[in-house]
Description:
The complex is a heterodimer.
Chain A: E1 3-7, E2 11-12, E3 18-25, E4 34-41, E5 48-53, E6 59-61, E7 69-74, E8 79-84, E9 93-101, E10 107-110, E11 114-118
Parallel strand pairs in A: 2-11
Antiparallel strand pairs in A: 1-3, 3-8, 4-5, 4-9, 5-6, 7-8, 9-10, 9-11
Chain B: E1 4-7, E2 10-13, E3 19-25, E4 33-38, E5 45-49, E6 53-54, E7 62-67, E8 70-75, E9 85-90, E10 96-97, E11 101-105
Parallel strand pairs in B: 2-11
Antiparallel strand pairs in B: 1-3, 3-8, 4-5, 4-9, 5-6, 7-8, 9-10, 9-11
Amino acid sequence: QVQLQESGPGLVKPSQTLSLTCAVSGGSISSGGYSWSWIRQPPGKGLEWIGYIYYSGSTYYNPSLKSRVTISVDTSKNQFSLKLSSVTAADTAVYYCARTRVVGGAFDIWGQGTMVTVSS
Amino acid sequence: DIQMTQSPSTLSASVGDRVTITCRASQSISSWLAWYQQKPGKAPKLLIYKASSLESGVPSRFSGSGSGTEFTLTISSLQPDDFATYYCQQYNRYRTFGQGTKVEIK
């Protein structure tokens, strides 16, 4: 079965760039029918969709974050990545990667999440 | 942007109760709505997609209904494992989540 695992630094300084990777196992990121998403959840708060990417490289971003977000895919490593620039304390959150069905649109498989704190 | 509003924010219920959570969209999203369950420290789990389709492996006590701008998630008989926070999410245009409904023990 497909599994997703986030990795990256747990602490990022203000104004720097947050970088995370999601490794996909048990299936190919290049298989059709899915896109690959990033979602975050500040401590004690709700979920916010960040954006998603298809294996072809096409991307769609949350308009509220678009100016700071880059999502990329590396099919040779079966993984996709998130970069969020100019971070502030408001970007402190648990970051999840998730598989998204193209038909049906829901996030059907999630990683366990990784906590990222923005602090000097 | 499409805004999603859930009600109530918190719901107190007992085991065996029938529970209903409402989700309203700021504009029509057809049936492009999903429901998730999240427990503390865990990733959300998909329960319902396309407003009323039950995800594989999810107990049949969960059901979803609605279309357009108003949707409901119903748990027919609340079980101890169901105390959690529930989120709706639209995928008509981009992706937006509701603010969540916490189901707690009465």
